[in-house]
């Protein structure tokens, strides 16, 4: 497929670098101030070098990428709250042009689910967003195949950085600030980790899952989620839990109208007690047991792989 | 969809009982000596009562079910080695009739992969077999969406009974024979658990995964798998491992031409150290991390749910 990549941060760059090996062609990449477009395929290495050297990826307006000759738009601009712009408008443009969209960005599905579905229903294009759920590969399609009404609830560890911090604090007996600084040094944490550690990112994942489970009957946004982050967790609490064979994880849960993100005590050998920067999603099924999907998908290449798998899915269906 | 269920053991019965709630209609069920067929839908409860009381499910020959007016054949007869009959012939009949097939039975894909693919290629029907891989829901389709050439290897705990026995032995310090008897009392183990504890069932799963990874370039059967079961595991070995924060799991692995099933020492907090009768499949991805899918799908209702999810998948694609 011909791909236009909107967003040239670490994930966008990785998608561009890996696209070829997945058998796809990149015809456009846009950053916030420019774009590079070539309908027969851009030279990815060259464009990324240009970006590295000059700070901008190409000579054209960013909008030019939205109007390139692509089959699928990859939306990987930074997630925003509220209107989920500019991602929402990017999706709108692609669907109006009858093109497919694959999202890395969580905003539009978490915040404007029915608006996105309406646009998709009126388009020959479809919207895929597996990669927006904790680097997962098939949780959304699995829920849809099982049937959303047969999934009683979903919970899990949705944020890799929060999990990295809690795991390290518990394993090494270190304090929150110390481990956060370490994660920033390792490049796991952004300079501003607020979205991750305050639970906002996990809350967006909750909304996405709740919206898929509700299947259009109702719609959830981040205002419906009760959110508590990990910044107040004391090393002493982790130590106490550990002595009892337990640990603390930042769990997100979506079950009916109950949407919550909060630190929770879980058994150390629980499927939810994934370590390091892993994430996990657990589906609680009617008439059946639980299904867990965990992923060590934390680097930008991991997320890019999940996104490109979603592109393949468009071809395989 | 209209379903014909071939095989009326615990899984076949559960599929029949749950089919309606998934929106499907059962038009035929066959056991080894008879069948019940009604092109507008059988009364499942009545047929299962008849089976309970008389030992046979209906008045017709078993073959009548194969020729009923179904959209999808559900193959859940007992798995056999070698020619994988009679399951293979059941698949052949359905595909010749341009109908879909969903397999619970591992035999045909593990033993005669290219024969099945050839029949499917020549048919308007397709063959789905997600439920044949450790009660999983989307491992096969995920491998196909990622691209088989990007999956470097697959390993995991493929057999729930073997895992139940090893977990119980380790947790309670009990011997193999004791825990096996307990599992038989609980109905988790068959009277003859050979397939499970000798590693044969896990080896068949290895073959299925290896065949999907090879994607037609080569073909594997159980003769290609080096197999060692759990019957020789001593409680003392588990105790030693535990003192070191480790445990023993019966792992299956498929990586290139290396196909192996054997007890392995793994860290207790490893994603592979699932407890009880859970199973787990771990995909090792090129350019990305590991993806784990674990399932507590052990009862016949769990497997039936996985099978009916596979039926839904036919409609959703």
Structure description:
Two copies of one chain form a homodimer. With 317 residues, chain A is an alpha/beta fold. The first copy, chain A, has 13 helices and twelve strands. In chain A, the strands form two sheets. A six-stranded mixed sheet of chain A has the order 3-2-1-4-5-6, sandwiched between helices. The first copy, chain A, has a six-stranded mixed sheet with strand order 8-10-9-7-11-12. In chain A, β2 (25-30) and β3 (35-37) form a beta hairpin. In chain A, α1 (10-19) packs across α13 (300-316) and α8 (160-172) packs across α9. In chain A, 57% of the residues are buried. The model of chain A has no long low-confidence stretch (mean pLDDT 94). β12 (290-295) of chain A pairs antiparallel with β12 of chain B, so a sheet runs across the interface.
Strand and helix map with partners:
2 copies of one chain form a homodimer.
Chain A: E1 2-6, H1 10-19, E2 25-30, E3 35-37, H2 44-54, H3 62-66, E4 72-75, H4 87-96, E5 100-103, H5 107-111, H6 113-121, E6 127-128, H7 139-146, E7 151-157, H8 160-172, H9 176-186, H10 194-197, H11 200-214, E8 226-227, H12 235-243, E9 246-255, E10 258-267, E11 279-285, E12 290-295, H13 300-316
Parallel strand pairs in A: 1-2, 1-4, 4-5, 5-6, 8-10
Antiparallel strand pairs in A: 2-3, 7-9, 7-11, 9-10, 11-12
């Amino acid at each position: 497929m011909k791909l236009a990549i909107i967003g040239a941060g670490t994930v966008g760059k990785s998608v561009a670098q890996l696209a070829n090996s997945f058998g796809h062609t990149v015809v456009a990449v846009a950053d916030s101030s420019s774009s590079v477009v070539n309908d027969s395929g851009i030279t990815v290495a060259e464009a990324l070098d240009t970006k590295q050297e000059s700070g901008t990826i190409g000579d054209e307006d960013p909008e030019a990428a939205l109007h390139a000759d692509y089959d699928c738009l990859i939306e990987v601009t930074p997630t925003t709250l509220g209107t989920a712009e500019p991602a929402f408008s990017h999706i709108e443009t692609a669907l109006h042009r009858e093109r497919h969209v694959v999202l890395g960005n969580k905003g539009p599905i978490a915040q404007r689910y029915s608006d996105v579905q309406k646009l998709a229903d009126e388009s020959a294009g479809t919207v895929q967003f597996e990669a927006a759920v904790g680097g997962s590969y098939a949780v959304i399609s699995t829920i849809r195949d099982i049937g959303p009404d047969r999934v009683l609830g979903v919970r899990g560890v949705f944020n890799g950085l929060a999990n990295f911090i809690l795991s390290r604090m518990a394993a090494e007996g270190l304090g929150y600030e110390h481990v956060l600084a370490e994660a920033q040094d390792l490049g796991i944490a952004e300079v501003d980790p607020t979205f991750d550690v305050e639970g906002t990112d996990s809350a967006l994942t909750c909304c996405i899952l709740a919206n898929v489970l509700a299947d259009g009957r109702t719609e959830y946004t981040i205002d419906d989620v009760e959110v508590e982050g990990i910044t107040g967790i004391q090393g002493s609490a982790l130590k106490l839990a550990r002595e009892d064979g337990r640990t603390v994880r930042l769990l997100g849960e979506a079950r009916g109208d109950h949407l919550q993100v909060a630190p929770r005590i879980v058994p150390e050998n629980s499927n939810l007690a994934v370590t390091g920067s892993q994430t996990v999603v657990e589906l609680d099924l009617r008439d059946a047991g639980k299904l867990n999907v965990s992923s060590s998908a934390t680097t930008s290449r991991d997320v890019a792989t999940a996104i490109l798998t979603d592109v393949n899915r468009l071809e395989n269906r």
